[in-house]
Design brief:
The protein is of the alpha+beta class. The protein is about 25% helix and about 35% strand. The longest helix is centred in the middle third of the chain and has 16 residues.
Length: about 160
């Protein structure tokens, strides 16, 4: 049986989010001044656009209105996507980050910045960028070697199509 409000909210909202072909990534209840804020983060294989976020927001709001999951007090509902520099915590996050540059905190200590090339059940095949004119190198990283991982924003990366032209 669920004990925390976040767990109860997840049980209530996850089927509704899933029915819209989205993944419920995160739920957070926070106090902001006198109000409470329910933040819900959703994502999908293809990402989410504003129309999909608006649709799921309306559906979640209606579901919450018909239950007492948030209690009697006022609250604001905020629905959004994980953002550009998302943390990678589940297998599907790594799959969605293929071809993205990621900063890894390693369980053995230290960090590594590399591009994810492929993902399987055991780990990742990476391309470590070359430094000072050197060529990139390949590296295999098992999931148990990763403490934390976060997608990095790239401003100067050329699109693959541009590179092939």
């Amino acid at each position: 049986m669920s004990t925390t409000q976040s767990e109860r909210l997840r049980e209530l909202l996850e089927p509704l989010v899933s029915s819209q072909d989205l993944d419920l990534e995160e739920i957070e209840v926070a106090s902001v001044g006198r109000k409470r804020v329910l933040r819900v983060v959703v994502d999908s294989e293809d990402g989410v656009d504003l129309d999909r976020i608006a649709d799921v927001s309306r559906a979640l709001s209606a579901k919450l209105d018909e239950t007492d999951a948030m209690g009697d007090g006022e609250y604001d509902l905020e629905v959004g996507s994980p953002g550009a520099e998302r943390a990678l915590t589940q297998h599907r996050h790594y799959v969605r980050a293929v071809d993205r540059l990621v900063k890894f905190q390693l369980t053995a200590g230290g960090e590594l910045v590399a591009r994810i090339l492929t993902v399987d059940e055991d780990g990742l095949d990476l391309e470590v960028p070359g430094v000072k004119g050197r060529k990139p190198t390949a590296r295999r990283l098992a999931f148990d070697e990763i403490d934390k991982a976060r997608v990095q924003v790239e401003f100067n990366r050329k699109d693959k199509k541009e590179e092939e032209a």
